[in-house]
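Worked problem 6 (solution included).
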Amino acid sequence: MGLFDIFRKKKTNNTFPENELEKVFKEATTNVEARDAFYMKLLWNDLYVITNESNAFQEGAQILEENVSLELQTFENGYIPVFTSANRIFDKGIVKEKVPYVAMKGQDLFKITKGANLILNPYSEYHKELVVDEIEMLLNGTLFNDSHEKENSEDSKKINEFNQLYDQAINLQKGLLLLDGYRYKDINVSEKKKLEASIVAFKKCLEIFPDHWQSMMLMAKSYQRLQKHLEAFNILEKAFTIELTNHSIPMEASLEAMHLENIEKALYYSEASLKRKPNDFVLLGNHAMNLLIASKDEEAKEIIKQAISLQPRDSINKNIQSTIHDVITGKRKRPTFKDAIK
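Solution. The predicted structure is:
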């Protein structure tokens, strides 16, 4: 039995496929020639795993330290569920409540779960077992057929080169990214050079794998830190068309549009982030402010009311609500994007 004979297809309606990995995964179920590409993307794309509540991480994209330990959800049969996107966790409504999860590069996940069997997208139309021997062969490069040995040797070189560049770029960014919203902090010459070097490394990553949206996202953060907002916005727009579920991409694109004073784009992307993550009080607050700046006062009033109902104690949204009220009643001037990002 071939490794891909353990694919199973079930009849259900969902949003699959949502990203490049899922597209190739679907194709690989019927096209033998696509299976090598699937395994390659499985290595360098982000995979999602459900963690124990004791693993307390802040929400959003972040870099986990090397010594961080994770307690992963495991089924009764010993298999660890792994997902190709966050939405796959909730397919069919089997998981009904919010659950803590983390995303990491497939290669890194396979290393920390070494010796365990995995099940990819267990609740979805397309799912697949990843058994111990298969994962080991994938990691050491011996998984592929002999007839593809030369081709896959080149693929392995590409993956290794990509991993080195990606790790290098992330290390250059450490401690330098904006982590406290819109506020800008000065950087010195040395820090500027590190950020510029990280951009060069991310560009090389994209030469190897052009659709790697994680590289685009992090490269945009470096551009953002350097106050190169047009460059950041352009790369975020590209990432937005590739990764269709991550809410942080349109959120960041909206912020960069604000810096560029592009009201149409700022509104479009703040609304898009809400479509990807509805009922998020932070995203609602961002969108309310954009609506106010765009003179859409009644919409802004309703959106900020919704945000505060979700998190009544949030001081930022309370300030936004007060600003909206004062603008509507004529107590203060309408804020501009420059006011919002001070």
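Discussion: The two ends are 62 Å apart (CA to CA).
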